[in-house]
Structure formats: C-alpha cells, structure tokens
Write a structure and sequence with these properties.
270 residues; 11 helices; globular; alpha/beta; five-stranded mixed β-sheet
Length: 270
C-alpha cells in the first residue's frame, strides 16, 4: 500500500494535476502525523496503516494551505465526509480538491467531483465505532442526574487548551467566540461554569455537522471523551430530521433551516 500511495502522489505532481498532496507519515513515539508533499522527493515519506486515523480535512480549510494551489488528500471515510460537510458550508470548491479514498489496505480510489464523493459515502457504513457505541449506550442507560454528574466530573479535568477545537475540521472560524474579551460570552479560564459553557456550546455548534471522526476526543490531553457529546448530538439530529452530516455537498444546515414537514416530537416535554 505504501508503494502505491507514493507512486500515486508522485504521478499527480509530475503530471501537474495538483500543487500539494496531504497524507500521513511516520511521527514520533510510534504515532503518525500529517505530511505535506509539494515535490516528488517529499512523496517518499507517505505511509498508510491502521495508525493513520487523523481527520486530514482539518488542513483543507486553512487559508495558508488553500493558497498553495489545488490540493489532493489521502482520505479515510471521516475525511471524505468532512470534505462534503465543509463544502456544503462554502468552505471548499470542487475545483480546489482531489480526493484519494483509502478504501482498504490495498486500494486507492480517485474521486474528482463532489457527486462522486456523495456516491462513495452513500455506499459506506456510517455507524458508530464499537467502543464509542458501547460507552454511549452505557451512559444512556443511566439516570439523568448520573449522566450529569459523569459529564461534570469529566469537564472538571478540562484545562481549556482547545485541542478539541484545533483538531476539528468544522471549527474553521477565523476567531472563536471563546477568544473574545469584549463581550466575553464564555469565561477564558478553566472554571466549572466556564468548562461547562464551552463544551455545551461546542456540542451545539457541531449538531448536524459532526461526522463522528473522534479526533477531538483523541486530541484531549486529559482524556475527556468529548467526542461522545458531538456524536450524541449527531444521533439526535438523525432521529429528529433524518439527516447525516457529510453526505452531500448541497445539504442545508439542520440548525438554521426551517421545513414545514419537520417532525416536532423532539420539542415535546413529557
């Protein structure tokens, strides 16, 4: 697979089909890292294995990367879904990106249009990973106060480093609300209230947009499974509106679109 990746990347640059290719390379301490190749020589560092799980779409929405020219990206399913989602939010154009779908350990599929991405995603299993599904089911089986205590205990560990924000492709705002001092809507320091405000706001901001890649949870230096909140929000959106994020570059925003035929069961209090 590594040889195939490197040869594919090499040919794309030699044929001047793209200006930069984003993929994976060996990192430190047995981890992998994002790798950017603009020359044929740089393509020799590309790898792919079961450790290559970072959502590389986070780099595609950055201005400093976009200005380098047409981008190609070696993409797992979450990366492909993220591309469709940010495209629906006018953050990527079809002409700016070429997707190299990593279908398995031995196959790469070239996807050149958003419609091809849509068709590709439609054939995939969008279910939640086993360990995350089990923990969510465990939490849902608890009483409301127990769930509240669980999350407050988790949030108490937060140091407000914003690694979860930095690793998320959907957090592409030039300046986040949390960085404003005037007006200050959320406290900057790590306090019980400030931490709760930050994580609840972030989960709501990602409702209908999260593709369940899990990068925010993996990035957390204190081990908060924060990705479970956005995954749960995604499940709720699916139940209420029958919408999966990152499945169509033409989809509208669930949280800001009104439809007369939307179900209203979710607003009823029992």
């Amino acid at each position: 697979m590594t040889d195939m990746l490197q040869e594919t990347a090499k040919n794309l640059l030699l044929n001047e089909e793209v200006d930069i290719i984003i993929g994976y390379a060996e990192g430190s301490e047995g981890l992998t890292r994002a790798h950017f190749a603009r020359t044929v020589k740089n393509t020799a560092d590309f790898i792919y294995n079961d450790r290559c799980i970072q959502n590389l779409a986070v780099y595609l929405v950055k201005g400093e990367v976009k200005k380098l020219g047409k981008m190609a990206v070696f993409a797992t399913l979450p990366t492909i879904r993220s591309i469709l989602q940010v495209a629906s939010e006018n953050q990527l154009t079809e002409e700016s990106i070429l997707v190299l779908a990593l279908e398995s350990s031995s196959d790469i599929k070239t996807l050149r249009t958003f419609d091809e991405l849509k068709q590709y995603v439609a054939k995939q299993d969008l279910g939640i990973a086993g360990d995350d599904r089990k923990l969510l089911e465990s939490l849902e089986g608890r009483k409301q106060e127990e769930r509240r205590k669980y999350w407050l205990d988790q949030f108490s560990k937060c140091i407000k480093c914003y690694a979860c924000r930095a690793t998320c492709p959907m957090c592409y705002c030039g300046r986040c609300q949390t960085d404003f001092n005037q007006p200050q809507l959320i406290t900057v320091e790590a306090t019980p209230l400030g931490n709760l405000e930050w994580h609840v706001m972030r989960a709501m901001h990602l409702a209908g947009r999260c593709v369940a890649c899990g990068d925010c949870g993996r990035a957390c230096p204190v081990g908060i499974p924060i990705h479970l909140l956005t995954i749960k929000a995604a499940q709720t959106v699916k139940q209420a509106f029958d919408v999966d994020a990152g499945t169509d570059a033409e989809m509208t925003s669930v949280m800001s679109t009104f439809k007369k035929d939307d179900k209203e069961d979710f607003i009823k209090y029992e």
